[in-house]
Amino acid sequence: MPELPDLVVIRERLIPELIGKTVESIEIVDPVVVRNITGGSVEEVFSGVSFQSIERNGPFLNFAFEKWNMIIHPMLSGRFSLESKYKKKDLCIRIVTNGPILNYVDDTRMGKVYFLKPEDISQIPKYQNQGVNLLSDEFTEAAFLKLTEKVRQQTRVFLMDQTKLSALGNAYADEVLFAAKIHPKTPVHQLSPEEKSLLYKSIREVLTSSIEYIRNKRAPLEVKVRDHVKVRNRKNEPCPVCGTTIRRANVLGYDSFFCPNCQPAKGEQFINWGTGDS
Fold first, then answer.
1. Where is the FPG-type domain (predicted)?
2. How many CB atoms sit inside 10 A of residue 147's CB?
3. Which of 79, 232, 234, 237 could form a disulfide with 171 if both were Cys (CB 3.0 to 4.6 A apart)?
């Protein structure tokens, strides 16, 4: 899925292409991803409106028009393209403007595209209960430490709780934990003050460096850039720090990748991560 660094760069690249452009037509190729809360026809309501702004809220991109909004939650496999000749069979939505064509593509059809008025945004699940923006000035070490108080979740589960931290996905949760040298199954309440401080710094550093890397890569808009990650989806490869084989664990139903040497488990575990294969 497009995660926070991806969405930051996607937004940056869409703004100069779309702001001020007028919608000439909208074609809903696959309505399964659409949530129409306008009370009318999307094609009619959005004809002739102009893009006013594009904002990111956690994992959502909010495209604002004069009196309407289109809010997209890409989820697992949603992606964007400005390629005018994108194959129709791969499309979910095509928006033709007096400038570029904006395509929304989603192979799994798990993403959601909401068409609605600004006053109806509360109807979008999770949109208004996002936690602290990890790229904002409000995300201070003091604020982070406050959020960790009395938390007994596994650290990876805590990192991916969007009601607390907005928003880390699977890839960057793994990368943050690797940078902080914390095993994904370590309960938050077992972290030392020093480990919590390093975890905060790792969130900041991993996100900042990843945004810069993706920005400089200049890959096609729909391409998910992941060649910079150190452990995510690198099971059985050598750790870039110590050479130990990278392992995979299941954490609350999600795959997590880590180095058992750099990120040692605390206490007894059901699996001995130092040997064998997960």
1. 230-264
2. 18
3. 232
